[in-house]
Amino acid sequence: MLVFGDATVDPGNNNRLQTAAKANFLPYGVSFYGGKPTGRFSNGRLVTDILAGKLGIGRSIPGFHDPKLKPGQLMTGVSFASAGSGYDDATAKRSNVLSFSNQIQYLLRYKRKLKSLAGPRRAEQLVRKATFFISAGTTDLLFHYLPSNQSAQDSQLHYEDQLIAHVANYTQVMRKLGGRRFIFVGLPPIGCLPIVRTLLGTGPDKCHGNTNLLAASFNKKLLKLVQILKNEPDTRAAFIDVYTIITKATTDPNNFGLTETSRGRCGTGTIEVGQTCRGRKTCTDPSKYLYRDAVHQTERMNQIITDDAIMNSIGEIYI
User: Fold this and answer.
1) Which domain holds residue 229?
2) Hey, what's the torsion of the CAs at 211, 301, 87, 312, to 10 degrees?
3) DSSP 8-state class, residue 39
4) What phi and psi values does residue 316 have, to the nearest 5 degrees?
5) Segment 244-275, tens digit of pLDDT
6) Cα 304–chain centre separation
7) The domain spanning residue 170 has which CATH number?
8) Which residues, 6 or more positions from 72, have their beta carbon under 8 angstroms from its beta carbon?
9) 181-185 and 78-79 beta bridge pairing
10) pLDDT per residue over 175-195, tens digit each?
11) In this structure, how many other beta carbons lie within 10 angstroms of the beta carbon of residue 152?
């Protein structure tokens, strides 16, 4: 599995960077193996870690920039993702993190390392059989676009189109580099994020409708791109609809074993994320929470997303 994107799939690649977009400190990671923070923006595993376990790849997907990365792990997959990144390279620049273009460049470096380890032929086979897992876009809309363009509907749609064009270009580059199996993760209901409820003034009991519409619009365009990609020769592609499953969990938490879906489990749960969560008090049972902080999901929600994806969308690319 080769992973690209933002904090939703970054296992700690930002730890070595001079950026505030880090999670390599408590209370992050308390539910991960060993109970230690790794840089993952969750209390435990990410969707990619859980999926790797389900597929028999390993118990987690390590970061390509992990100083403890073992040569053998290159054979099973790595993540190039960087928290604070997005499909728009300008988004990453704001936080001094790895842009999507940077991540593609590291894919090239990965392939060189893989060839030296396994030989050219075996390396190409591994890449062609790998799952290219892509999860980004929330940071683009949440931190780069929405603060300055909330009311410009035409600009919103134009920016979405730009992002989709970036996704299409990156995907074609990945195909040229050997990618044949792709999973794209859609945007969540961004208007339901605790930080959005707080900053846009809806309060803890109501999602911000217009922001959710923006995310839903983007997802329709991304799904259309996935359908086009499916028609490419020798290519398989799937779309994970996190918007729907998170909306269901938000409106009917009891059905998913959750009790809190409007606040994170760090500090007040309304605005804290990353550095502002450092050392803050947390709840005693994260499995009852949808959000780890004011933006990112708990391991429990990541499990729900993964199980739903396996059942409803991604199974077809492994047939």
Assistant:
1) 2-318
2) -100
3) S
4) -65, -25
5) 999 999 999 999 999 999 999 999 999 999 99
6) 15
7) 3.40.50.1110
8) none
9) unpaired
10) 999 999 999 999 999 999 999
11) 12
